[in-house]
Specification:
Radius of gyration: 16 Å
Helix content: 10-25%
Low-confidence stretches: 196-210
Shape: globular
Structural class: alpha+beta
Mean pLDDT: 88
Length: 210
């Protein structure tokens, strides 16, 4: 991402959205608090440089790293860009019958769970970005069917009062390929023409490149 963002800012590369899965790991944002890393020896921990606190990435979770020219598309308005990403997630969830919601003071996308013992709602998607020279990087993660017990090693995004959920936890069966297709369609509708698709190594479909 670092080199791609530099190339976009310099006009040497197109904007890109990489769709990928990580092995199990925790990432710490710039606001991460040491006390929120409950189990530091369970998985590798990476200092990510994005905004936000601790989060988990792993198999069964779709990560979308968005390298977008926020200056050109959003006039440099970071909040507008965050709202754009939140809207992408909510529209994508709607396509699978899931109602994603926003909450004041809590970043990410939430699903009402009145039947749960903790908080009455769970987070299904996290968001954390960084802007450099007007170009965004990092992005969003959506829980398709990860091992939700892996979140127990951290306080996700510093929020203790609510849990996390996934498509599978909500009883919605969806393949990663189906989710990717929906993400491509939503991003394309909001950003315009998609030129090609490659993964982060450029080898096979797995990312959106403009």
């Amino acid at each position: 991402m670092e080199s791609r963002v530099a190339d976009i800012a310099a006009g040497r590369a197109h904007e890109a959205i990489w769709l990928l899965e990580h092995p199990p790991l925790y990432t710490a944002g710039t606001s991460a608090k040491p006390a929120d890393l409950v189990a530091p020896d369970v998985f590798p921990v990476f200092q990510s440089g994005r905004g936000g606190q601790y989060t988990y990435h792993g198999p069964g979770q779709r990560v979308a790293y968005a390298m977008i020219d926020v200056r050109r598309r959003f006039g440099g308005d970071v909040r507008a860009f965050v709202q754009f990403l939140e809207g992408v997630v909510i529209e994508t969830l709607e396509r699978f019958g899931i109602k994603g919601e926003l909450r004041d003071g809590r970043v990410g996308v939430w699903v009402a769970r009145p039947d749960t013992a903790v908080g009455g709602e769970d987070k299904i998607a996290a968001l954390g970005i960084r802007i450099r020279r007007g170009i965004s990087f990092h992005g969003i993660s959506i829980n398709v069917d990860p091992d939700l017990s892996h979140f127990a090693g951290i306080v996700p995004c510093g929020i203790r009062e609510h849990g996390v959920t996934s498509f599978a936890d909500l009883g919605v069966k969806v393949s990663m390929a189906d989710l990717d297709a929906a993400l491509r369609q939503v991003f394309a509708a909001r950003l315009g023409e998609i030129r090609d698709a490659f993964d982060a190594d450029g080898n096979h479909p797995g990312a959106i490149a403009r």
